[in-house]
């Protein structure tokens, strides 16, 4: 498990591109046949991936979390961005099509991942946060997700927010998770941008062609930085950082949030004229 320690806004001001990428970019996701995990000390979120091929992959407790099972004191959200797969939670089987999601509650003991076709595997994206209470495990398909349509063609940001792990869909302790899909010919994922002081966020960008890129904006509103992000890479966004981006084409991103509340509209907006 890769471990990332918290970086303050004062430290981030002094960082060059390489240092920013080392601290905030997760670029080693979706490796066939393994489970990849990154533990961030920003609200202790863990994000990662499971790409099962010939054999099942089992979610195990890394030494970093010091628990008998991975979900002993955690909850988990999963979205499949690959081909058809299967998740088994304590003997219950969930068939997972592309863009299907699953919430797994605290206390689940055995979680495994498998693909229906090893040559065309499922690609499970994972997000986990500490949890204080057990809520029921629940599957959420793309059709089940709560949908919010936002943006305009004039601002190049027509998009649909699909909320999978959200109080209007299911109960969780602190995890929020979903995916936002931009329409063709739209490239901005959030503008005007915003902060949410009470929650952090991780963006995982996907559905990008190999030669495309995202310019991800980060930093304080008056002290911005940017990182170039490619397909199936993720960015850790602390609560002090704006998070917004623009691509060379339309794309999808999966967002996961952790923090002290679950009010999705709890944000402090930052207008274009307030950014430097």
Notes on the protein architecture:
Helices cover 5% and strands 43% of the residues. The protein is mainly β. The protein has one domain (2-274): Jelly Rolls (Sandwich), CATH 2.60.120. Strand 13 and strand 14 form a beta hairpin. The chain is globular and about 55 Å long. It starts with a strand and ends in a 6-residue tail after the last strand. 42% of the residues are buried.
Q: What's the end-to-end separation, in Å?
A: 35 Å
By CATH, the topology is Jelly Rolls
Give unreliable regions as ranges.
Answer: none
Adjacency order of strands in the biggest sheet: 1-3-4-11-6-9-12
* Beta strands, count: 23
CATH class wording: Mainly Beta
Q: From the 3D coordinates, which CATH architecture would you assign? A: Sandwich
Helix content: under 10%
The largest β sheet comes out as:
7 strands, mixed
Over all CA atoms, what is the radius of gyration? Answer: 18 Å
β-strand percent reads: 35-45%
What is the succession of H and E elements? Answer: EHHEEEEEEEEEEEEEEEEEEEEEE
What's the rounded overall pLDDT mean?
95
User: Per the principal axes of the C-alpha atoms, what is the gross shape?
Assistant: globular
